[in-house]
Amino acid sequence: MANKSKTMIEVKQIIQLYQSGKSKRDIARVVGISRNTVKKYLHLIKARGYSYKEFLDLDDQSIYEVLKEDHSKNKKGPVELEQFFPYMEKELRKTGVNRWVLWEEYKAKHPNGYSYARFCLHYQQWSKSTDSCMHIEHKAGDKVFVDYAGKKLQIVDRQTGEITPVEVFVAILGASQLTYAEASYTQQSEDFISSMQRAMIYFGGVPAAIVPDNLKSAVTKSCKYEPKINECFADFGFHYGTHILATRSYKPRDKAMVEKAVSIVYSRIYAPLRNRIFYSLAELNEAIKERLEAYNAMNFKARNYSRRDLFNSVEKSALNPLPAEGFQIKHYSLATVQKNSHVYLSQDKHYYSVPFRFTGKKVKVSYTKTTVEIYHNYQRIAIHGRGKNPYGYTSIKEHLPSAHQFVSEWSPEKFINWAKAYGQSVHQYILKVLDNRQHPEQNYKSCIGILQFEKKYGKERLNNACIRGLYYNNYSYPVIKNILEKGMDQLKEESIQRQLPLHDNIRGGNYYQ
């Protein structure tokens, strides 16, 4: 026992001297042992997954067991532990399960079995956890880690032979290590969000948190404590009911799992595809999918189960369900409410109404493929279906002041139907006016002015005036006004060709006398 105590004192002295900055040669001289023995003890403590501080806090008996374990020739441990550890590895991924709980289960079956400390040491040795930074037991359904591979794949244009490099997105679930990968043209927000959605569909559920690297599509501004998440990605997380936990900059431990997954993707996907040529992104992704399925179905090293098996038995049921509808990517822009109670969305070249009390206010416009939402001070003040006709108006009558509500009812259909009642020529002429390349509201005003002539001149004269206007290929309110005021609609057909072009500035014959 005295010899044992002396050994423990020596080991503690070695650690203390090493922490104080002494070299291994100096430590060996002070303690009176060889330098190789010093190196052996320091390496052994690190290999067992202890920090030097944690190791010094152990009692002599626990230190003795750790050191004694290294001298044992039986590295694998007893048979009952070898049979118990695969079950233990799966169970540790479940919520609330820890080593103590499983050790109690083990002791219930084997009352004369190992102590808790020896049990944990055997498990560490079995699982080959020699790197303390990798010693993380992820809970089922807790996190998915995402990143892009540093090296790109490529597709080739079949006609020109042009080579286009493409990005490779990788996502891996923490507990089961089930992996998803696909190629996309860019790392930009739309491609990134689309890849994330397909990863969720592949997993068949949503984990509690997404852990992305600090790419711009995920993190607008990185920070050790509170990184600023990209607004579109934050909306994605809210839609799927999951949290966004960005990794810390220059902290490889935060993303060790996905970094390892990327490395495996290189060997399991890149390498087998290296001699193949792909002519489209869809063709490349189909090949990636085949290799990915084979990889997920492959057994872990020294295990009798695969990532897919572990996912089905442990993690699948722990994921939250997918939302009923997929996420639509949102874009944002700023606008000022115009005097006509509308905002202009330049992406659509379209106008959308807001309540008139916000005239002159700065607003934020959020839009998807199908919907446009308008916010003022974080309050939604209007929502519309996405308009597709350039320079058109999408209006809600109640948004406009009473003086403008009639204008809100203007539409091409309104004037076309109105013109049909006055005759075929009027109908054709109004169609031409609506096709003019000017602001739609100005076209509508021109139509009203032309159609109002029916009250003064009647349908027949208005119809004849439009015939003359169509002949001159000039489509505006002043043209019809001149024709009607000068009585040109009542001229005979053969005299039309002798007329000069219509214009207010044409001088008459008397001017030159």
Can you describe what's shown?
The protein contains 18 helices and 15 strands. The protein has helices spanning 2-19, 24-31, 35-47, 52-56, 60-71, 79-91, 99-109, 116-127, 189-203, 231-240, 256-273, 281-296, 307-315, 412-420, 424-434, 440-472, 477-485, 493-496, and strands at 143-148, 153-156, 163-173, 179-184, 209-212, 219-221, 228-229, 243-244, 331-336, 342-345, 350-353, 362-367, 371-376, 379-385, 393-394. Strands 1, 2, 3, 4, 5 and 8 form a 6-stranded mixed β-sheet that branches. A 4-stranded antiparallel β-sheet has the order 9-12-13-14, with no helix packed on it. Strands 10-11-15 form a 3-stranded mixed β-sheet, with no helix packed on it. A hairpin with a 4-residue loop joins strand 10 (342-345) and strand 11. It is elongated.
